[in-house]
Write a structure and sequence with these properties.
Layout: H1 2-35, H2 37-40, H3 44-57, H4 67-85, H5 88-93, H6 95-121, H7 125-134, H8 141-150, H9 154-178, H10 190-219, H11 225-245, H12 250-268, H13 272-300, H14 303-308, H15 310-338, H16 345-353, H17 359-366, H18 375-403, H19 410-435, H20 444-471, H21 477-500, H22 512-519
């Protein structure tokens, strides 16, 4: 018994040391990327890969996980964080192009990349298709950050995030179907694959909806931020594991639960303070998990093996770029024929060149069973392609956006939002000062002096707001948007308060959201 306890203590100590190393390295890279102008131009994820390669050279191994655990540990938080933050109202407007890019685009990528590798390099088709499935998932982390910095339009951001969110699910389902073929446990059939895809997707949507709505109604019963935060973490991993156990797609289950909790549950069951704390919590989780994945791939790759597989990597890169172009421009044209909202050729070009690959592709490649003969070829090919997209496409994205004239006013919009928030806060401070009763310690002169200081600062803020409104008249619509958000919050929080107090025994469907949507 004492021997087992000693081994357990040593294992815990080793895991803690690995955790601290990963956290320290991640924070160091994040700090470096912010304080240095040179490193700020390099995507954060690429810096992590480079650091991971450096650690591998000095024989420091950060994380040792079995392939089976990689998807279960890394994918749920990454997918949930993205689903939590995407706004359904914006996504619904672009559902046709997002669906085409996320589902049809994945099929085109898997088939195109797979057959290209098989034809030009002689890689066995089952292995080549697994490479295609791994590379079908896009990772827009670096691109979205650049969009926000340059003020790129909201629609392009929604298309990029929406495609990534849903093609993750489609890519993982395709990967899970294809991985059984080279192992000899499954035969490929288009009909069977389609039926299996629909079945596992349907189970994922069903389980994700049950968990999402269940947690949403549960959080209406109490106001405990830490408990509600923990419930979102439970729902992310719970949706994945339960759906997988029932034969469905855990990825689709997590995405469904995340969208419901982020758009429905956060309104009916959480106040503004709780929503903010939950969002910050998931922002950190996504940052840390991304850090581990990109450090992990750099940590585990053998550089000499990459050089030996240069032909595979080169063909995969050329195939990826060419097939991505066919997919984006072809499906973009089809979407324009179906919907009234056209995707411009400039936006299609950004979607094409901005189709970076990252954490999900890496996690899929690393999850290939060790017994598979072509596992190392898959990992090294995927790593090489991911490195190319981050280094070449990621570093040239800003130039592409600027040349296409898509730089917008989002930076000014963010500044304007902050000024509106400051004005609101200062007005509340003035109201509080006015309600303060005089006492021996607080006389009229002191009270008026404080009011004057606050009023002076408020006048400065109002002047800055007026200057921005004059320079960018379109910013004035932000106040209307904020008012609509406040109206929706008030309605949802009122129902939640009535349920908590026992005056209402079920949640009422929101009225204002439909009214405001019709008005738009």
């Amino acid at each position: 018994m004492s021997m087992e306890a000693t081994v357990g203590e040593e294992l815990i100590k080793e895991n803690l040391e690995q955790f601290l190393i990963v956290l320290s390295v991640s924070l160091g890279v994040a700090t470096l990327s912010q304080i240095s102008d040179f490193f700020r131009q390099i995507p954060y994820t690429l810096l992590l890969v480079i650091v991971g390669l450096g650690l591998a050279f000095v024989d420091i191994r950060l994380v040792n996980l079995s392939p089976e655990l990689i998807l279960e540990i890394f994918l749920p938080p990454l997918l949930f964080e993205a689903a939590w933050n995407i706004r359904w109202r914006n996504l619904k407007k672009n559902l046709v192009p997002v669906t085409l890019l996320a589902i049809v685009g994945v099929v085109i990528s898997v088939v195109g990349i797979g057959f290209s590798l098989n034809y030009f390099t002689g890689l066995p088709l089952p292995i080549a298709l697994l490479v295609g499935a791994s590379l079908a998932a896009t990772d827009p982390v670096a691109v979205i950050a650049l969009f926000r910095e340059l003020g790129v339009g909201e629609r392009l951001t929604v298309l990029t995030e929406g495609e990534s969110l849903f093609n993750d699910g489609a890519a993982v389902v395709a990967f899970s179907i294809l991985v059984g073929i080279p192992l000899g446990v499954q035969e490929f059939s288009i009909t069977n694959s389609l039926v299996q895809f629909v079945a596992v997707s349907g189970i994922g949507i069903g389980i994700g909806s049950l968990i999402g709505f269940g947690i949403s109604y549960l959080t209406q019963r109490f106001d405990l931020p830490l408990v509600e935060q923990s419930l979102t973490l439970l729902s992310a991993y719970g949706a994945y594991l339960l759906t997988e156990e029932l034969g469905g797609s855990g990825v689709i289950g997590v995405v469904t639960a995340g969208i419901i909790l982020g758009n429905f549950g956060s309104r009916i069951g959480m106040n503004a303070r709780t929503r903010l704390s939950v969002s910050e919590f998931w922002e950190f989780i996504a940052f840390f998990v991304n850090s581990i994945i990109f450090l992990l791939i750099g940590d585990q790759i053998n550089i000499s093996s990459l050089a030996d597989n240069w032909k595979l990597i080169l063909v995969a890169i050329i195939g990826l770029v060419a097939i991505r172009a066919i997919s984006i421009y072809g499906l973009g044209t089809l979407s324009n024929l179906i919907t009234k909202q056209d995707i411009t050729w400039q936006e299609e070009t950004v979607l094409w060149w901005g189709g970076l690959r990252g954490s999900v592709s890496i996690a899929l490649a690393l999850s290939v069973p060790v017994m598979l003969d072509g596992r190392q070829d898959i990992i090294e090919t995927v790593f090489g392609v991911v490195l190319f997209t981050l280094l070449v496409q990621g570093l040239t994205m800003q130039t592409v956006i600027e040349k296409l004239g898509l730089v917008g006013d989002r930076a000014q919009r963010q500044t304007y939002r902050e000024l509106l928030a400051r004005r609101n806060a200062l007005e509340r401070v003035l109201q509080h000062i006015s309600s303060v009763e005089l006492s021996p310690s607080i006389d009229e002169d002191f009270k008026q002096h404080q009011q004057g200081l606050v009023q002076g600062k408020l006048d400065e803020v109002n002047q800055e707001i007026a200057t921005l409104q004059k320079s960018y008249p379109q910013l004035q619509s932000l106040e209307q948007e904020q008012l609509q958000e406040q109206l929706l919050d008030i309605e949802a929080e009122t129902y939640a308060d009535l349920i908590r107090s026992g005056k209402l025994n079920k949640n009422l469907s929101p009225l204002l959201q439909d009214v405001l949507s019709k008005q738009e």
